[in-house]
Amino acid sequence: MTERGAGASPKPQDLLFALGGALVLEHLDEPVPTRVFLEVLGNLGVGQAATRATLTRLTERGFLARSQEGRVVSYALTASSRRLLEEGRDRVRAEAPFHQESSDWTLLSFSLPEAHRDVRHRLRSRLAWVGFGCVRDGLWMAPGQVPLDRVLTLPVTDESVQIDGFVVRPAPGTDVGRLVRRAWDLDALRREHEAFIARWEGPPARDLDPVAAYTLLGAHWIRLLRQDPVLPQVHLGEDWPAARSAAVHRSASEALEPSARAAFTELMAWARTLR
């Protein structure tokens, strides 16, 4: 579980990623003027300084490419960020994103020296994104068979770095439920689902313009996908709210997407006139 609780406001970076995956991918041949980002995030309560700083940081990290024509600064997705967003889009739009069919579990053990503290942090974040929970220091587990090729790709060649992964089935007598409760805070995860449902169930709120609302929906949904490891139903109980969350997301997306796409196209056209 992440450090932020249910209902927490998304960070500017989360909003930019959500906007990128939801709408910017449709404009791949057209850099997005800074003014567009300022407008959308401004409608979500993010100040201009924070938005500009986040754009700069994402450019430095290779997610965005900066260009300038006259006085207008624009940003385009890089090849790596397009690939990342396209991969994430499949999960965002999945019909049953929280349904686990496999009875297998993936175990991952790693040992990283203190000199690679930054790599350790990135690895833990990546593990959480693909569904792993920490059983004990250095030992993580995830439901199903998780492809480890992307997880295990780290920018280090130090022989002291040891990472091993296995796909296993529990031996008879193993209390898998106890391991699940140790690796994941199920009460906190339930609260995340309930907060999402409370925010997005029913008719779309009228306090936000369509682009801002669709971006916020995407940011909330991505956060929920990141936090939910897709555990087998047997460890969750019949009243687990994940299926309802998925239904609420589908309904909210269908209600917001057409007007958001049209409004974003208009916003891009308006920004191009500010030369």
Automatic annotation (TrEMBL):
SUPFAM superfamilies documented for this protein: Winged helix' DNA-binding domain (SSF46785)
Highest rank taxon of the organism: Bacteria
Every Transcriptional repressor PaaX-like N-terminal domain range: 25-79
Signal peptide: none
Domain Transcriptional repressor PaaX-like central Cas2-like: 103-146
InterPro entries, alphabetized: PaaX-like_central, PaaX-like_N, PaaX_C, PaaX_trns_reg, WH-like_DNA-bd_sf, WH_DNA-bd_sf
All copies of domain Transcriptional repressor PaaX-like C-terminal, residue ranges: 184-264
Protein name per UniProt: PaaX family transcriptional regulator
Organism: Blastococcus xanthinilyticus
Alphabetized PANTHER family for the sequence: PHENYLACETIC ACID REGULATOR-RELATED TRANSCRIPTIONAL REPRESSOR, TRANSCRIPTIONAL REPRESSOR PAAX
Pfam families: PaaX, PaaX_C, PaaX_M
GO BP: DNA-templated transcription
